[in-house]
Design goal:
heterodimer; A: alpha+beta; five-stranded mixed β-sheet; globular; disordered C terminus; B: alpha+beta; five-stranded antiparallel β-sheet; 14 strands
Chain lengths: ~775, ~290
């Protein structure tokens, strides 16, 4: 990484390092109830307190004040601070800006709020029962920009969105199947745990709002804040210093509304930094219940799949409907299945709002379908490797969305993953491998495989500008966010290579919506691919300008000139050359600015889910080996080998780190991570002692990443997320392969494994769905 | 954290004087690894914090013949873990300290702080009970010794009075021929607190018969669990597989474990049995 030295010496400036003259500190008061009507708020004592500059409550969002305080990416279901009701334990209900955090907290404690508790609903399936308490009523308005992506629905239910995919004839498909398997898989809420918590600094000067904020979406923050404040986009400026990790948690409005309204009211800048326990009640991975029904022929040919998926989006929808759509559209997996019927719902409940988390709905999907693939293989007496191989998507096959596929590499990825753990047909001899009889000791080893196919957000748009300076150095102006993933490094490399200059001559900007061009977001593994594409085009534009000016200065035609090493040289007469800087200055241009835009097109029909789901498909496989203690259920991961199709790798080391990072991230979700609520919707584990993430001791003994590239050139495929989704199923399959315990609810705790072992008699290899002759 | 007065005495005499003066409104802070979390979570709200950071006393580790290891309360877990004298005299104790949390916590957390906190999910207590260790406590009223087995009274509750400070841990030498072991079982991350801890000590005679067995389960209930009536079954007998299994099962049956995020009561019973068996097998192996 270009900023490696800065990073290890602690010199990278983060948003929390922003200090402004007169800056106040904000704290947020939160609901103690999962669902309650607010009867009365009295903030007068807090307002009178010395050192308190502003108190924000629902009284600041009245028609007379001119601000609705309502926002939401897809549905306007969120309020800056709660208005009529609170909808989860932790829902912001008031905020204070004061001279320091302690004073702000003290003031918050003086705000009197009278609640009337309401019945609450937490489970995504119970929320759908008739008579379940309604989290939002009437139904919140949909943002017009999302009408083509998410269908609006009638009110009166907790169903927030419904994604449909219809392909082939599902009933005929099940009739043609020899066996039909139906299983339910669950994933719990989980945390992103970036080292840096959410942090925002807001300042109003002369009617213009400037935000320094930890966001992955500077332009989306700008447009949403402009709407909330009824300002033109030009009057909201969003600056994004380096993030200390994002993983999707920093993908929507978080602290920006509260910080901005506090700053507006106080007339002074305001900083808010979340504490770790507040991170837990701000955003999480969607809990999901996914029912998968798969029809298969005796020979192992997949014929039909019907899926009902419920994604628990919590109290506010955020991007939940898109998560449900993305997870839903991936549910046929990387397999040829002619008949597919998918219903994927986002459901409102009284839990912490769920949003984007590395993988965006696909981790929940893969956990379900790849666990079931092994269960089916066992029932059919097939080697799970062979069963997968038989059904893989290949070039010219159609995906469930109807799009014709090209550049498919699942054969190679699957073979590589299998070889990485020395998978052999012996490993598939389920009945003989376990269980406990005849072998001494309590440790058993097993292997598992899992595949993933994942979309990158489509359509999408990125714009870049490259500014040529007088000395020939380059400033890349980009709104891609450096989250620690190495965006700046990779974009500098792409710029340098395209412009034929050393990478040290390139400086990459932080996003600043006043200065840097539009970018949709830093998410969906898209930066290297999409912003990289924009940078390449900006470089093309700049090179053309340089060549045209040079041709004029040298009185030659462009065809006679070549670019090399930061200079334009005359073909055949290399001694005759001009540096980029000389060209800009001698042509009386000062700066030259190249601009490039990269966009993709696509979309799915709202009724059938048919269309273009992704400009290209991210493909991955994992080979895994575990050791399980039969007596305790404890799992030790021996090997976790992520294999990805990367198309073209820009920076091998960063690519490898992304794959390792995904593997470790997934290992935590596989083995221990789960947000646990009590029966009143109060989160029980809001710190990293009670909510465990993997430590270095927990990481697999061997992680051997592999990135498959085109033999020559080819398109870049992002790798930020691809290999997280299959980790949980690979480990689950390996655990089953080791001891015959099938767990369907993540995480795979030792207790669940031990219970599964006790429930499954030694003589039977556990249950693998209910096969029935159709 | 709202205005808390920080007291920073320079000597133990000052400490006990301050404790006598402020008693219930004061909490002692040493490494802060547990106390700061409690403060942040508002589980405690003392008006004053008494920092022992300036004390030069209570930081020594030494061995006193006839008494045993004497470890000052302000010795960090890391220092105790690496101490040559602890490693030589009582490798199981050194190993126990090495199993607490992670190296960052162990560099800050102190032996006295760990015991005074009395967190049920902690590693050292069950080992110290098994080793018949005791602590010294000082107050303005004087000094007294408390067996570790009597120190813990409940969740985060000890026998220490509000005017007392734990000053020293004394771990008697184990008789020659005594084998000991501590098994820490974590159900989640390797840096997690124990789901179940199991300390075992066995004193075998030359014929392979057990003169004494001590078996103490940690992290399964409010305080460490030792059941003398079951331990007694081993006296004078060989610790064969059958007896070991019988004792392990009896422990699992006798203990009424708690449920928490690390495991249900049912699960803890299973683990108590497994760990008790494994620990006994290990101390039973020939020298």
């Amino acid at each position: 990484m270009l900023d490696a030295h800065q990073r290890v010496t602690g010199c990278v400036p983060y948003t929390d390092n922003v200090e402004l003259p007169g800056m106040l500190h904000g704290r947020i008061g939160r609901s103690p109830h999962a669902h309650a009507r607010i009867l009365h708020i009295d903030a007068s004592a807090a307002e009178r307190m010395a050192g308190v500059a502003a108190v924000l409550t629902r009284d600041d969002f009245t028609p007379e004040r001119g601000y609705s305080g309502r926002y939401g990416r897809i549905f306007q279901d969120q309020s800056v601070v709660a208005s009529d009701k609170v909808r989860f334990v932790g829902d912001p209900v008031a905020a204070v800006a004061a001279i320091n955090e302690e004073r702000a907290e003290e003031a918050l404690s003086l705000i009197k709020i009278e609640y009337e508790e309401l019945p609450a609903v937490f489970d995504e399936q119970e929320a759908l029962r008739p008579g379940a308490p309604l989290v939002h009523h009437p139904r919140p308005a949909q943002q017009p920009a999302f009408r083509a992506l998410i269908q609006d629905l009638p009110g009166g239910s907790n169903v927030c969105s419904h994604f449909k995919l219809r392909r082939g004839d599902i009933e005929a498909g099940f009739r043609q199947s020899d066996f039909v398997f139906e299983d339910v898989f669950r994933s719990p809420a989980a945390q992103h745990v970036p080292l840096e918590p959410h942090v925002t600094v807001a300042q109003f000067l002369e009617g213009k709002l400037t935000l320094w904020t930890s966001t992955q979406m500077p332009h989306a923050v700008r447009s949403q804040m402009a709407e909330l404040l009824r300002l033109p986009l030009s009057h909201v400026r969003v600056i994004v210093p380096s993030l200390g990790g994002g993983f999707g948690s920093k993908g929507s409005l978080r602290l920006e509304p509260i910080a901005s309204f506090l700053a507006l009211k106080a007339g002074r800048p305001v900083k808010i930094v979340l504490r770790r326990e507040e991170e837990f009640v701000t955003v999480c991975k969607h809990p999901a219940t996914i029912r998968v029904k798969t029809g298969v022929r005796k020979d192992g040919t997949l014929v039909a799949r019907q899926v009902t998926a419920h994604f628990n989006t919590g109290a506010y929808s955020d991007v939940g409907p898109v998560v449900a759509r993305n997870g839903g559209s991936a549910m046929s997996g990387p397999y040829r299945i002619p008949h597919v019927w998918i219903d994927s719902y986002a459901v409102w409940t009284n839990l912490v709002p769920a949003g984007a988390l590395r993988g965006f709905g696909v981790p929940q999907a893969v956990w379900a379908y790849e666990s079931q693939m092994d269960m089916i293989a066992e029932r059919l007496g097939l080697d799970p490797l062979e069963f997968r191989r038989k059904n893989l998507l290949r070039d010219d096959d159609s995906f469930a969305t109807g799009e014709k596929l090209a550049d498919m590499h699942f054969d190679a990825l699957l073979e590589h993953a299998a070889a990485s753990v020395q998978w052999s047909s012996e490993d598939a001899r389920w009945l003989e491998k376990y269980p406990r009889n005849g072998r001494s000791g309590s440790l058993r080893r097993g292997k598992g495989l899992a595949l993933v196919i994942k979309a990158t957000i489509t359509p999408s748009m990125s714009v870049a500008a490259i500014k040529l300076n007088e000395d020939g150095s380059l400033n890349l102006l980009t709104s891609s966010v450096e989250c620690g993933q190495g965006a700046k490094t990779v974009l500098a490399q792409i710029t340098a290579a395209a412009m034929q200059v050393p990478v040290e001559r390139v400086s990459v900007s932080d996003p600043d919506t006043d200065l840097t061009p539009y970018d949709q977001q830093t998410s969906s593994s898209r930066t290297t691919f999409s912003m990289g594409g924009a940078v390449t085009r900006a470089a093309d534009d700049l090179k053309l300008q340089i060549l045209n000016h040079a041709a004029e200065l040298l009185e030659l035609s462009v065809a006679d000139l070549i670019l090399e090493d930061g200079r334009v040289a005359v073909r055949g007469t290399p001694a005759r050359s001009l540096s980029y800087g000389e060209i800009a200055m001698r042509a009386n241009q000062g700066n030259l600015i190249g601009r490039g835009a990269f966009s993709t097109r696509g979309g799915l029909d709202l009724e059938t889910g048919q269309g273009v789901g992704s400009v290209h498909w991210h493909q991955g496989a994992i080979g895994c080996e575990v050791e399980v203690d039969l007596e305790t259920g404890k799992v030790r991961v021996l090997q976790l080998n992520p294999c990805v199709f990367a198309g073209k790798v820009v920076n091998p080391r960063l690519c490898q780190l992304q794959l390792e990072g995904s593997a470790v991230f997934g290992l935590g979700q596989a083995l221990f991570e789960a947000m646990v609520y009590d029966d009143r919707g109060q989160l029980m584990n809001t710190n990293l002692s009670d909510y465990n993430i993997p430590s270095f001791q927990d990481i697999a003994e061997r992680i051997n990443p592999f990135a498959l590239e085109h033999v020559s050139g080819g398109e870049i495929h992002g790798v930020g997320e691809t290999l997280l989704p299959p980790v949980m199923a690979a480990i689950g399959n390996a655990v089953y392969n080791a001891v015959g315990a099938r767990v369907r609810d993540l995480p795979l705790t030792p207790e669940k494994i031990l219970r599964a072992l006790r429930e499954a008699p030694c003589s039977s290899p556990g249950s693998a769905g209910t096969p029935r002759k159709a | 954290m709202p205005d808390i007065e920080l007291l920073q005495p320079g000597s133990l005499d000052e400490v006990v004087a301050l404790l006598a003066a402020h008693r219930d409104e004061t909490k002692i802070i040493s490494g802060g690894t547990a106390l700061v979390i409690m403060l942040k979570n508002r589980l405690i709200a003392p008006a004053k914090l008494l920092s022992v950071g300036r004390l030069q006393e209570l930081r020594a580790i030494r061995h006193e013949p006839g008494v045993g290891l004497r470890i000052g309360a302000l010795v960090t877990l890391r220092e105790a873990e690496l101490s040559p004298v602890v490693r030589e005299r009582n490798p199981t104790l050194a190993d126990t300290f090495a199993k607490v949390a992670n190296v960052r916590v162990r560099h800050a957390a102190t032996v006295g702080g760990n015991l005074s906190e009395a967190d049920y999910a902690s590693d050292p207590p069950c080992v110290l009970v098994a080793m018949r260790a005791r602590v010294k406590a000082r107050s303005i009223r004087g000094e007294r010794e408390i067996p570790v087995a009597n120190l813990f009274k409940g969740f985060y509750e000890t026998d220490l009075g509000p005017d007392e400070i734990l000053t020293e841990l004394i771990v008697p030498d184990l008789a020659p021929g005594i084998r000991s072991v501590y098994h820490k079982y974590v159900s989640r991350s390797s840096e997690d607190r124990p789901c179940v801890g199991m300390a075992a000590l066995a004193h075998m005679d030359a014929d392979g018969a057990c003169k004494e067995l001590r078996l103490v389960a940690g992290a399964v209930a409010e305080i460490p669990q030792e059941i003398n009536a079951i331990e007694e079954r081993a006296r004078g007998r060989r610790l064969d597989d059958r007896l070991i299994e019988e004792i392990a099962q009896a422990y699992a049956d006798a203990i009424d474990p708690l449920s928490d995020l690390r495991g249900s009561a049912w699960y803890r019973k299973q683990i108590i049995r497994v760990l008790a068996r494994r620990a006994m097998q290990e101390v039973n192996a020939p020298n």
